[in-house]
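Usage

Read records sequentially. Each one opens with the input sequence:
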Amino acid sequence: MDRLYLFVRDESGAATVEWVVLTAATVAMTLAVMSYVSEGVESLSNDIRNALSGFTIMTSFEEWDTFRAEQAVAAAEDEAAQTE
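and closes with the structure output:
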């Protein structure tokens, strides 16, 4: 009976149980927040992808003059469309 009493009164594993409970609560809260904001983050990332997909990346300086001329024409057309 003394062994059972000592086992019940022993608190050496209490800290481990507390850490397990705290870790489980942290994981649960993280999952809840993630499910709440995931749709907004996905929408924003799609908007960024769409905005960046129209950019042209120059891989050499040989095409630079042609690129600048095309961009100047496009900017002039945009400015003319905005003033109308």
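Summary fields computed downstream for this record:
- The CA atoms of residues 4 and 10 lie 10 Å apart.
- The chain has a mean pLDDT of 86.
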